[in-house]
Design brief:
Number of domains of chain B: 2
CATH superfamily of chain A: lambda repressor-like DNA-binding domains
Number of helices of chain B: 4
Structural class of chain A: mainly alpha
Oligomer: heterodimer
Distance between the termini of chain B: 28 Å
Radius of gyration of chain B: 17 Å
Largest sheet of chain B: none
Strand content of chain A: 5-15%
CATH class of chain A: Mainly Alpha
Radius of gyration of chain A: 11 Å
Order of helices and strands of chain A: EHHHHHE
Order of helices and strands of chain B: HHHH
CATH topology of chain A: 434 Repressor (Amino-terminal Domain)
Largest sheet of chain A: 2 strands, antiparallel
Number of strands of chain B: 0
């Protein structure tokens, strides 16, 4: 799974820690999601999309395989 | 914060286990290889547990949660590996002791091995999954 989180974080001038505080997770969780090493739950994906003022569709791109 | 009592209890348990270990080693007359190996495993487990408590405290101080959905999933998975390790230790330890030493292991030794192995497997799996990221 690919994500545009890093790009959108930069747009709103948010650090990983700022975003983590906004959505109530640890900073490492944001890091692993950005690296594609962790697939968030639907709720967390929704919370992150809301914090970055976008939609889940625009935030995460799923690989077909 | 809900996590504070959990961290406090964890810290107290760690202190009690370390104290028990110190008292045990001060009171036994001869220190065997089994005592040294089990003591070393307990020290490793306690060191890792203290690291987890310190890491959670650090996050709380920064205003972040001590535990989130990723760590909860990791805990469940590490717990599963620890459980599997416990079952296999209970089955394999007496058989291996019979083959290698030619005698049956006493019940208390099997229990100790099961507890130490499952705790060690849990801790090592937890740290490996936390370090690797764990793709759900």
């Amino acid at each position: 799974m690919k994500t545009r989180m890093k790009e959108l974080r930069a747009r709103y001038n948010l650090t990983q820690e700022d975003l983590a505080k906004k959505v109530g997770v640890r900073r490492e969780t944001i890091l692993f999601i950005e690296k594609g090493d962790y697939n968030p739950s639907l709720k967390l994906a929704h919370d992150i999309a809301e914090a970055l003022q976008t939609t889940i569709d625009e935030l995460f791109m799923f690989d077909q395989d | 914060m809900n996590e504070k009592p959990e961290i406090l209890i964890g810290g107290i348990v760690a202190i009690l286990v370390v104290s028990s270990l110190v008292v045990y080693f001060l009171t036994i007359r001869t220190v065997g290889a089994l005592d040294l190996v089990s003591g070393a495993i307990i020290v490793i487990i306690i060191a890792l547990a203290i690291y987890i408590l310190w890491d959670r405290t650090k996050n709380i101080r920064k205003g972040l949660p001590a535990k989130d959905e990723r760590l909860t999933t990791i805990s469940y998975r590490a717990g599963y590996y620890g459980f599997i390790a416990a079952i296999w230790t209970a089955v394999a330890a007496p058989v291996i002791a019979d083959i290698l030493l030619g005698r049956e292991l006493e019940g208390h030794l099997v229990t100790a091995l099961v507890v130490l192995t499952s705790a060690l497997v849990f801790m090592l799996s937890y740290f490996y999954l936390a370090w690797k990221g764990h793709t759900a």
